[in-house]
Write a structure and sequence with these properties.
Layout lengths: L12 E3 L5 E3 L3 E2 L6 H14 L3 E3 L7 H14 L8 E6 L7 H15 L6 E4 L13 H18 L5 E5 L3 H9 L8 E5 L7 H9 L3 E5 L16 H10 L3 H10 L4 E2 L6 H7 L8 H9 L16
The structure holds NADP nicotinamide-adenine-dinucleotide phosphate.
Length: about 300
């Protein structure tokens, strides 16, 4: 499908529950592994208007992002606080403050930053512990407490979680150590529409942030992009299928972090100044009955 004619950058922002301002659209960087690619893509992204970048310790690319920020922020006359950086604590580093602080410091060193804007627990289950092992529950609690201590010490602007189900959030909220997660980053696209999670997060002032907006992490998996409902809406609105899928999330107050290494797609994904009408939103929501999940599944983690 042709690129959209609507090309101005979408600059909407969300205010997180502690007052931190976060761009509604960020650049996902999963599987962007080399320094060359990251330097090129971050350069294009900053030029296109992206101000938010999503990474994780397990992506192994924090160091390349750090190098890109060091070179490119001056090029665009930007300061550190003009960008919003999210990283995530690896499931192999769950534990008390000492363990979490050491992992956080390593991420900061890699990124060449003295704070990140948002630090997330990557997954409800810890590495090398079976999903059904109750130690997951205990470790989540200890780890969340450690994140709240980093936050209370002023070392990170906001903290949150990722891949948490309603049940994981309910457990956390029973003893949240004084901080409600600002964000829950989850798989979110019309084939995996989780209305109860959205409602729970809205009721508790937790912002949902979508990943896998296009239905999977592989360019070879185009089922959702090729879905007739998505295609018809894209044709009617004269936008791309990717734009429909991102706007669908944003219109539900769900933030997005599409990943791309293509300059055309980068521009497409931040050019979202159109509205999907209610009937079409309902048609997209109705695809959720399919319950197709692409990424790792947290539902079995106790
Ligand atoms: N918290 C978690 O557990 C978790 C899990 C997965 C991902 N994430 C985060 O979320 C980000 C996004 O998720 P994702 O990378 O899995 O998937 P995604 O952003 O939904 O999709 C990426 C795929 O879509 C293609 N694409 C991007 N824009 C396009 C466009 N406008 N038109 C057509 N194709 C397009 C990309 O190919 P090209 O590069 O060729 O454009 C890439 O193959 C990740 O990068 C990561 O930062 C978090």
């Amino acid at each position: 499908m042709a690129s959209s004619t609507k090309s101005s950058a979408y600059t909407a922002k969300f205010t997180l529950n502690n007052g931190t301002i976060m761009p509604a659209i960020g650049l996902g960087t999963y599987r962007m592994r080399t320094g060359d690619v990251i330097m090129r893509v971050v350069d294009w992204a900053l030029a296109a208007g992206y101000r938010m970048f999503d990474t994780a310790a397990v992506y192994g690319n924090e160091i390349h992002l750090g190098a890109a920020f060091k070179t490119l922020l001056p090029k665009y006359e930007l300061e550190r606080d003009d960008i919003f950086v999210t990283t995530k604590l690896s499931p192999s580093d769950y534990g008390n403050k000492e363990i979490v602080e050491s992992a956080y410091t390593k991420s900061l060193d890699n990124l060449g930053l003295d704070y990140v804007d948002l630090y997330l627990i990557h997954f409800p289950g810890a590495s090398k512990i079976p999903a059904t092992d109750l130690n997951n529950k205990r470790l989540r609690d200890v780890t969340w407490q450690a994140l709240t201590e980093l936050y209370d010490d002023g070392r990170v602007n906001a903290i949150g979680v990722s891949n948490f189900t309603v049940s994981h959030l309910e457990q956390l909220m029973l003893n949240n150590h004084g901080v409600i997660p600002a964000v829950n980053q989850v798989e979110w696209h019309p084939y995996y529409y989780q209305e109860s999670l959205l409602n729970y997060c809205k009721q508790n002032d937790i912002l949902l942030q979508a990943y896998c907006s296009f239905g999977g992490t592989s360019a070879s998996n185009m089922a959702l992009m090729h879905d007739p409902v998505v295609q018809k809406i894209a044709r009617t609105l004269n936008v791309t299928c990717a734009q429909v899928l991102l706007a669908w999330a944003l219109q539900q107050d769900v933030a997005v972090i599409p990943k791309t290494t293509s300059q055309v797609h980068l521009k497409d994904n931040i050019s979202l100044n159109f509205t999907i009408p209610n009937e079409e939103m309902k048609a997209l929501n109705a695809l959720g009955g399919l319950k197709i999940k692409y990424a790792w599944d947290p539902t079995a983690v106790v």
